[in-house]
TrEMBL record:
Bias (Basic and acidic residues) ranges: 126-178
Protein name, entry field: Single-stranded DNA-binding protein
Sequence segments annotated as region (Disordered): 116-203
GO molecular function: single-stranded DNA binding
Role description: Plays an important role in DNA replication, recombination and repair. Binds to ssDNA and to an array of partner proteins to recruit them to their sites of action during DNA metabolism.
TM ranges: none
GO CC terms: nucleoid
GO BP annotations, alphabetical order: DNA recombination; DNA repair; DNA replication
Organism: Bradyrhizobium diazoefficiens
Alphabetical keyword list: DNA damage, DNA recombination, DNA repair, DNA replication, DNA-binding
InterPro entries: NA-bd_OB-fold, Primosome_PriB/ssb, ssDNA-bd
Organism superkingdom: Bacteria
Amino acid sequence: MSVNKVTLLGRLGKDPEIRRMQNGNEVANLSVATSERWKDKRDGEMKEKTEWHNVVVFNEHTIKFIDKNLAKGDQVYLEGKLQTRKWQDQSGADRYSTEIVVPQFAQSEAFQKIWERDGNGGGGSRDNDDRGNDRDDRGGRSSSRDDRGRDDRGRDDRGSSSRNRDDDRGGRNDDRGGTRGGNSSRSSAPARGNDNMDDDIPF
């Protein structure tokens, strides 16, 4: 068993480069910097070391997101695998490049932008515009599904029928002294409670 997985949280050193390959598919090349800091035991000074990583993205939806939202200095989170590529320079000499590849069929969570806190105090989060639109669509469908569920289950009809039955029982109870005349208000309360529960259910 073996595992080839890389996780990076860093900043773009330059604007993304997007080009089209010979097969017609697009590819995005990124330069991502990660830094580590430590205190030197000898002089007590803080030291910092920066590593630069070449990242290659083949996923079509991720490339569209990169083209629309990313620029130099933005912070990104990504998951990929190490891959060494062989190529030739202008003199014909063989060259090798080790890259972090985000594959074509990667999950949407494999590449995300870290949104910075703005001046209004908005919190930073990892998100994707396309995924946000999907959530909006699902939210719209959930509200219509909620309305449709109430119509199909006929909760309003049952509420009215229960009140009619209570009125009939109330009329019969009046002949026996009216000892159970308050059942109407109690039986109608659960119907309203169920409606409230449906409104609180998260979709």
